[in-house]
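G., the chain you wanted modeled:
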Amino acid sequence: MKIHEKYILRSIELGKNGLGTTAPNPMVGCVIVHRDIIIGEGFTSPFGGPHAEVNAIQSVKNKELLKESTLYVTLEPCAHHGKTPPCVDLIISAKIPKVVIGVKDPHDKVAGKGIAKLVAAGIEVITDVLESNCREHHRRFLTFHEKKRPYIILKWAQTLDGFIAPEKKSDANEPHPVWITNIYSRQKVHQWRSEEQAILVGTNTVLLDNPKLTTRSWAGRSPLRFVLDKDLKTPSAYHIFDNSTDTVIFTQKNIQKTTQPGVHYEGIDFSRDIGKQICEVLFKRNIQSLIVEGGAMTLKAFIKANLWDEARIFTGNQSFGKGLKAPVISGKEVNELKVGSDSLKILRND
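Predicted structure as tokens:
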């Protein structure tokens, strides 16, 4: 392994510590090396806090060594003022002579400006080291800025015979989920929720299951809840209105204002491509990742429009015989594993 690749890989590992907390900032990792010894490391703090480069530089005990060191970072350092000052200014002021970058930043406020400023200051810059690895690591951030939409994850659970719901619940008067998967798979879903910014479900899922869509079984913040409710059928006592986390309702009704705490409304045209309209709203709200958890009609709308990046499909160890058929999807299988008695298949839309 080449020396630059070694430290970019370490930077990627560090960056993973920011999953679920840094957005809409990217989860950058940074390593500072002096004569082949790591003297500083850092990753992006939760949104509003210092970036990876700042944390790495601050972690170096002997700042004099920075003048003879190389800084490795997964993404081009920022050159603009946001919640924090530009990282390139700190790198320049620290007199770090060499910077190695995994992938360039497509954000219109950066987009080569960070590299240009470093070069203008006389710093040697090497780019595109393990670029594909860094693109994979930063796939949410890059999808958002390159495709102008969030990174979209489709998730569902199906039975051995290919159903996602029974024909009829045993107690139709009390809305509740019918579990197909085991408790370990359900906990895994809560972990995923903690890693993404938003979650979306359709009207029928809310009316039949009354889901909370939170991360109750995992440490971490709950995603922003988005619900498709064309005619505002959801009763006010349902969990999506419990104010445990904010909820945005997509509707065709004309809602001028609401007095419900934590509830917001977005008007869309349900006769048009809803997936595209949802993506436009989420892009406007600076949401970089979305889990679509159902139901079948909502999932199929995203599949039909080819608006998805990843599909995570559980198959539980039971059969319904009849019921609501699971969506049909094709993609590149990147992983298949067992979660207790369940199987989990992960596809990419490459």
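The mean pLDDT is 93.

Shout if anything looks off.
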